[in-house]
Amino acid sequence: MAxxxxxxxxxxxxxxxxxARVGMQTPNQHSxxxxxxxxxxxxxxxxxxxxxxxxIIGAAVDSVSDDMTRKGIRITSEIDPKARGVLESxxxxxxxWENLNNIIKWSRLYGGALGLILIEGQAxxxxxxxxxxxxxxxxxxxxLDRWQVNPDLNRRIKVIxxxxxKPEFYNIxxxxxxIPAWKIHHSRLIRFDGVTLPYQQAQTENEWGMSIVERIxxxxxxxxxxxxxxxxxxxxxxxxxxxxxxxxxxxxxxxAKLDALLKHMDMIxxxxxNEGMTLMDKNDVFETHTYTFSGLDKVLAQFAEQxxxxxxxxxxxxxxxxxxxFSTGDADLANYYDxxxxxxxxxxxxxxxxxxxxxxxxxxxxxLPEDFTFEFNxxxxxxxxxxxxxxxxxVNALNGALDGGMMNLKAAMNDLREMADVTxxxxxxxxxxxxxxxxxxPPLSELGPSQSNTGEFTESNTNLNGAQIxxxxxxxxxxxxxxxxxxxxxxxxxxxxxxxxxxxxxIMGSVGDGFTAKSxxxxxxxxxxxxxxxxxxPNQSTKDSAGGRKHRxxxxxxxx
Length: 560
Known about the structure:
Layout: H1 44-53, H2 55-69, E1 73-75, H3 81-93, H4 96-110, E2 112-119, E3 138-145, E4 149-151, E5 169-172, E6 183-185, E7 189-193, H5 199-204, H6 212-234, E8 238-243, H7 247-253, H8 255-271, E9 285-290, H9 296-311, H10 315-318, H11 330-364, E10 374-376, H12 384-403, H13 409-418, H14 420-423, H15 431-436, H16 466-480, H17 486-497, H18 501-508
Antiparallel strand pairs: 1-10, 2-3, 2-7, 4-5, 5-6, 8-9
Helix pairs in contact: 1-2, 2-4, 3-11, 6-9, 12-13, 16-17, 17-18
């Protein structure tokens, strides 16, 4: 009983001050604020007029759809190269990217759009069975906006899956373009919604989405009003006034005095210039009034930022505005491109997969391989410096993996060609080159110590430049010619190229065993015999370090 007799206690979920009338629940102007629907998505004529006359609406609608379809895709799975080329050429031949662009564009403008998969010889009201598609029967896509079709809300999809509860059929209501009044099965359609709405709100839009114009309409009118107002203020920026005694009487009486006054004003307009002169009565007063409109640009910039935030497109893309201050705009574009990539994955990947399957069956009479994959080409355009850096790192990484025995030459060449769109190198590698790579010699790291040197030096470290490789070859050649002890040559390799002694021994191979130094001093021609592994005579000059004014060419010119 005590529980039932408890009095309700006031809650304090937000700040309020009744005496100062501060807070949403107090009687003030702010508390009267609310949100009401404007149903802009239902007003087709208003949306179309805005799209035609407002460049901001046009840019907001077109930018995302253009960017989602601008760069296309690349097939990353291993399929026959000819099949890859045929599929890629069909996108251009049937204008599939253009039609996909229009479907996404009208879905953003109207709140929804469809793409009809055109299969020759099949009734549109029947379910699309991919295995029945004949060769050459796929004819492309037909864009249809939400006002051209009407979903049959009495026939629902009852099969458990991603389409459960959606309309099973769509009826074409606008036949003005010569399209028959077909009843189309949902399996033959690709559907895109605008701004996705919750269930109750979607019912009010005939189960379509919402136009992007609806969310920005109030911000857009504020921006256009401010812009038009600023244009009108330009006419008031410089005013000239002329005071005349008893002007009202002259106007009221009219006649010759009024005509003389008007003639006088015309003369002032005609002769008032840099070289002219203004003639006026002694008692008349002529004044100019100049106005400056400070802060107006900041107001317009704030309205522009609100529109940019509402549509999710940065200022540099939506308005073509140059970055200001220390900002380069790259961060804004990077975030925007990430958003485009997300929409491509969520909204465009599955429709493209269906299209590619239909295209593959139409051209080759068989379904796509189970491991078929593709990726969207990146929108971000790298600078030449970034591209060259990535290319260098890619080549070095592939060379390292190749020399380390982690991959073969065929795989390395294939990966290099796949990265050609990013790095700019490797696109000229043909399939024949890759197939022939299997017959080429393995890299140096796969050879044994006895095979690593046969009297001629083989490049060991792909990160060395040409001069370093030449000097390394010269050291090995000098040891082989008996001009340097083997141990000295190995020590030079270790010190100069930051490698361990094992690697230096592998490079040197069997060169220098039984070292016999050639005499460079004295009168005799007999060589001085030094045991293998011996050290050079202290303070004995070499050909490069010997005294003399002129530079001596010799085996150690690598030390210059």
